[in-house]
Write a structure and sequence with these properties.
alpha/beta; Aspartate Aminotransferase, domain 2; Aspartate Aminotransferase, domain 1; 2 domains; seven-stranded mixed sheet; three-stranded antiparallel sheet; 17 helices; 44% helix; binds pyridoxal-5'-phosphate
Length: 436
């Protein structure tokens, strides 16, 4: 089945865009820490006839006919997710990370209930209580922050805040924090104040299943993750939870549902209609890939590469938030370069050099989210491409030169040549048949 031929014949404009995007991905260095390259098998499962099916409900309890095979697909995805993470319950239907978190709020909290979330400026996600997001608008968010000096989370301060505020839920997890999260310590706090812990491992789930980060599964009541970041699957999400509702008598005395049932009914019919069966098929494929021993090697190499990249950058005089990393991501602090509020300018100069990353706030940002003073980067995508320690050195040099030039176009043009030379040796999808 040659899908690209069909596209070429029927819609030249989109076919052309697809080819140009593939070229962009092949030629550049992808450092956005939430991005990755899926396998061709995942791509094929997504671009399949499963997209034609409607299957509202859950396996064996559907509202439409013709779901025998789709039921097998969803059951396989669930079973593989349970094996991969070691969780009691998994719901694979959420369309993406944000809807997954929305479903957890919907399942556990009432409107205007209070929860604790990680400050967006210092590393939390929009859905952890930003005032422009549903989480901050519909619920009362109290934010915890990193220590101003060490730029790291301090469990004692979070504990104090939780005792003082008595939230109904505490969210742990990160989107731009380069250090490990202690889910066990979060759970101890949550249990002391009768709150649920929602561990959002969207960024680090690949590291968790690859034994490169502590797993929240033994501790947290609910765990959400996207499937398209370090986990290297299709765009989507899953929600995992315990089955028993530890706080049933305190927070849901009138409900007959356990925690797993609360989550399931929040996803469907609470928030969503039909699941994306083609994506669920691709999730099953990606979970199968992550169950293989090679995936552990991948996860460990992601962390190793990030450490080398961080060390190289620091040795070239670049300041990093928290002075390093112990996960897959790195935050560059541009303030010492006299580039406060200029993250966007450097992001563009790096784009011209063939290096993609994103501007980001630094803790206690003195400028604004749209004109931030930092850069966020990570190693999941380049590690999938097969790059190792020696390539990290080349990339660090390019990054440092562009930053030190403050965005000089001639420096970007010069770096672009070395980036093209480097990426040539790491083909993205060798012989990608659907593109022939
Ligand atoms: C990426 C991310 C999400 C949201 O995922 P989308 O698929 O973009 O909606 C939620 N939480 C965290 C921690 C994330 O990093």
């Amino acid at each position: 089945m040659n899908l690209m031929n069909e596209l070429n014949n029927s819609d030249f404009e989109v076919a052309d865009m697809l080819l140009r995007e593939l070229k962009r991905q092949e030629e550049g260095i992808e450092l956005i820490p939430s991005e990755n390259y899926t396998s061709r098998a995942v791509l094929q499962a997504m671009g399949s006839v499963f997209t034609n099916k409607y299957s509202e409900g859950y396996p064996k309890k559907r509202y439409y006919g013709g779901n025998e095979i789709v039921d097998e697909v969803e059951i396989l995805a669930i079973e593989r997710a349970k094996e991969l993470f070691g969780c009691e319950h998994a719901n694979v239907q959420p369309y993406s990370g944000s809807p997954a978190n929305q479903a957890v709020f919907f399942a556990l909290l009432n409107l205007k209930d209070k929860f604790l979330g990680f400050n967006l400026t210092s590393g939390g996600h929009l859905t952890h209580g930003s005032h422009v997001n549903f989480s901050g608008k519909n619920y009362v968010c109290v934010s915890y922050d990193v220590d101003e000096k060490t730029e790291m989370l301090v469990m004692d301060s979070i504990h104090k805040l939780a005792v003082q505020e008595k939230p109904k839920m505490i969210i742990s997890g990160l989107t731009a924090y380069p250090r490990k999260i202690n889910f066990k310590a979060f759970q101890e706090i949550a249990e002391e104040v009768d709150a649920y812990q929602l561990a959002d491992i969207s960024h680090i789930s690949g590291l968790v299943v690859g034994d490169a980060h502590q797993s929240p599964i033994p501790y947290a009541d609910v765990v959400t993750t996207t499937t398209h970041k370090t986990l290297r699957g299709p765009r989507g999400a899953i929600i995992m939870s315990k089955i028993e509702d530890r706080l049933h008598d305190i927070h849901h005395p009138k409900s007959k549902k356990n925690l797993a049932q609360l989550i399931d009914s929040a996803v469907f019919p609470g928030l969503q209609g039909g699941p994306h069966d083609h994506v669920n098929a691709a999730k099953a494929v990606a979970f199968g890939e992550a169950l293989k021993p090679e995936f552990k090697d991948y996860a460990k190499q992601v962390v190793k590469n990030a450490k080398v990249l961080a060390d190289e950058l620091m040795s070239l005089g670049i300041k990093l938030v928290t002075n390093g990393t112990d996960n897959h991501l790195i935050l560059i602090d541009l303030r010492p370069e006299d580039l406060t509020g200029k993250g966007g300018i450097i992001q563009e100069a790096l784009d011209d050099a063939g290096i993609t990353l994103n501007k980001n706030t630094v803790p206690y940002e003195p400028s604004s989210p749209f004109h931030p003073s930092g850069l966020r980067l990570g190693t999941p995508a380049i590690t999938t491409r097969g790059m190792k320690e020696s390539e990290m050195k080349v990339i660090a040099e390019g990054l440092a030169k562009v930053i030190k030039s403050k965005g000089d176009a001639s420096v970007s043009a010069e770096i672009k040549k070395s980036i093209l030379e480097l990426t040539k040796h790491f083909p993205l999808y060798p012989g990608l048949s659907i593109l022939k």
